[in-house]
Amino acid sequence: MTESSPGPQPAGTVPDPSRQGQPTSTLTDAGAGIVAAATAHGLVPKTRPRIGVMGGTFDPIHHGHLVAASEVAAWFDLDEVVFVPTGQPWQKSDREVSPAEHRYLMTVIATASNPRFTTSRIDIDRPGPTYTVDTLRDLRTQRGPDVDLYFITGADALDQILSWHDVDEMFTLAHFVGCTRPGVKIELAHLTELPGDRLTIVEVPALAISSTECRARVADGDPIWYLVPDGIVQYIQKAHLYGSP
Ligand code: ATP
Ligand code: MG
């Protein structure tokens, strides 16, 4: 990121109409009020390794996930982004989620070409429902106390954050980065209860892609080329996922 870019913004700040160099189209979707000229957390000199944590169901992983992770990695100078496919996601108990091994393998395939991206089994190997606080606790234990963790989440998930388990502990374990997502308005009022110094909103290039739509397209026989990495198109066909023949 260039020094002239406004950088990621702490939550709860006001718009700066003078900002330059970034698309503004997603601002309407994300809601006015999240973009401001302010201290760019990502430009603070790095003293220890920084590890991004991208949790998701990844059923399937798509380019929206990959672009969000890549963009946050650039803003925050992350050394690595660990993609962590969920075990049995508690928020999605209303629908059938594909077997964890398929979601894990698709995540490995999609992240393999980026030297900074890795995939972890910690959530799928832990019995029971996945809670983000457990993911962060386990990663903290695995990686030790001398790294900074950055939990990356989309605007839709951010809105539910207050309902997550052990939210106070979560914010002690990681810095949270909320990414804009087309069609999702970030409700600043919901974020005021969260610790402002531990949450940053980042505008990422808008990709209106969701796993739900990818699954529906496969089921309807419509193409998902270029919505997901090529290897994922092939994997879905090979494993007959989402009703593909
Ligand atoms: P589903 O439609 O099944 O809920 P999804 O596309 O929302 O799938 P998830 O695995 O639920 O994908 O998302 C993992 C994380 O990635 C969440 O924090 C989500 O908000 C974020 N995310 C997903 N798609 C995008 C996107 N297009 N742009 C920005 N963030 C995204
Ligand atoms: Mg989702």
Descriptive terms for the model:
245 residues; 34% helix; binds adenosine-5'-triphosphate; seven-stranded mixed β-sheet; alpha/beta; disordered N terminus
Instruction: Bin the strand percentage.
Output: 15-25%
Shape: globular
- Average pLDDT works out at 83
Distance between the termini: 44 Å
- Bound compounds: adenosine-5'-triphosphate, magnesium ion
In total, the number of strands is: 9
User: Class by helix and strand content?
Assistant: alpha/beta
Query: What order do the helices and strands follow?
Result: EHEHEEHEHEHEHHEHEHH
Work out the radius of gyration.
Answer: 18 Å
Notes on the structure:
The protein is 34% helix and 16% strand. By secondary structure, it is of the alpha/beta class. The chain has a seven-stranded mixed β-sheet, sandwiched between helices. Strand 2, helix 2 and strand 3 form a beta-alpha-beta unit. The longest helix is centred in the first third of the chain and has 14 residues. The protein is globular and about 50 Å long. The structure holds adenosine-5'-triphosphate and magnesium ion. Adenosine-5'-triphosphate binds next to helix 2, strand 7, helix 6 and helix 9.
In short:
By secondary structure, this protein is α/β, with parallel strands linked by helices.
Secondary structure blueprint with pairings:
Layout: E1 9-10, H1 25-30, E2 50-56, H2 63-76, E3 80-85, E4 88-89, H3 100-111, E5 117-119, H4 122-125, E6 129-130, H5 132-143, E7 148-154, H6 155-159, H7 167-173, E8 175-179, H8 188-191, E9 199-202, H9 211-220, H10 230-238
Parallel strand pairs: 2-3, 2-7, 3-5, 4-6, 7-8, 8-9
Antiparallel strand pairs: 1-9
Helix pairs in contact: 5-7
The structure holds adenosine-5'-triphosphate (ATP) and magnesium ion.
